[in-house]
Amino acid sequence: MPTLFISSNRHDEAIAEQLQAQLTQRGFSHWRADSDWYGTPGWPKIIGERIAEHELFLVLWSKQAAISHIIEFEWHMAQLLQRRIIVLRLDDTPLRPEMPADLQFDWPPAAEFWHALQQTAPEFDAKIVQEVVKKLVRFNETKPAQVTRKMRIVYFNSRIDNPKLEL
To answer: How many domains would you assign to the chain?
Structure first.
């Protein structure tokens, strides 16, 4: 089964913990960052490496997630790393246009969600992944807003200019 990186906002922590328990019970390998990491030196690199280590990017989407710098950073990182993005909607907050998803499901997860997670993850270009991960060391900002601002530039430039992803 594919491995999952879980992106969630601290306001949605109770649901994230429920989801993690369900994933574990069903035999999925998953990882979710401890909120204490964010704001410490090197956190963008650590998070980027963790996303790269997992095949699927699963985000818990809510009103609070929609305004989270950290969720935006993680989402764009998942896009750069060519991960399948799966959204689990906790409320009716619409996705932002610059943050598209491959699949969307509602909370609590139904059979279709569990079936989708079991599908083979899409192929990705290992060379691009290595380039992105190698350059994460250049993210030396610690404040989530600053990191996200830099990520927006990287992400949008990569979509316009080149697939080499100049960080």
So the answer is: 1
